[in-house]
Amino acid sequence: MRRGREFHTTVIDGPNFETPIPVRKGEVNKDGEYTILPLELDQTEDDMEIL
Questions:
Q1: For residue 39, what are the β-bridge partners?
Q2: Planar angle of CA 16, 26, 45, nearest 5 degrees
Q3: Considering only CA atoms, which of 29, 22, 19, 13 is closest in space to residue 43?
Q4: Which of 3, 9, 20, 36 has the fewest CB atoms below 10 angstroms from its CB?
Q5: Pseudo-torsion of CA 25, 30, 11, 48, nearest 10°?
Q6: How far apart are the first and last CA of the chain?
Q7: How far apart are CA 24 and CA 43, in angstroms?
Q8: Which long-range contacts (CB under 8 A, 24 or more apart) does 17-25 make?
Q9: Kind plus residue range of the DSSP H or E element containing 49
């Protein structure tokens, strides 16, 4: 059984953003036809107060 193709996009900056979303990029992983770039929020203690 073949899975359908999925594409996911993460937007971290743009004209509607007051400031870019800080992210840390992980290591690129390739799995057959798929390439995955893990992202993590790069939060500081000040950022945590907002949440």
A1: 25
A2: 60
A3: 22
A4: 9
A5: -40
A6: 42
A7: 9
A8: 22/47
A9: helix 45-50
Tokens of 1: 């059984």
The C-alpha R_g of the chain, in whole angstroms, comes to 15
Could you identify the residue written with the tokens 């949440």?
Answer: 51
pLDDT in tens, 28-43: 999 888 888 999 999 8
> Looking at this protein, which amino acid is placed at residue 12?
I
pTM for the structure as a whole? 0.58
- Per-residue HEC secondary structure of 14-37 comes to CCCCCCCCCEEECCCEEECCEEEC
The residue count for the chain? 51
Coil, strand or helix: which one is 40?
Answer: strand
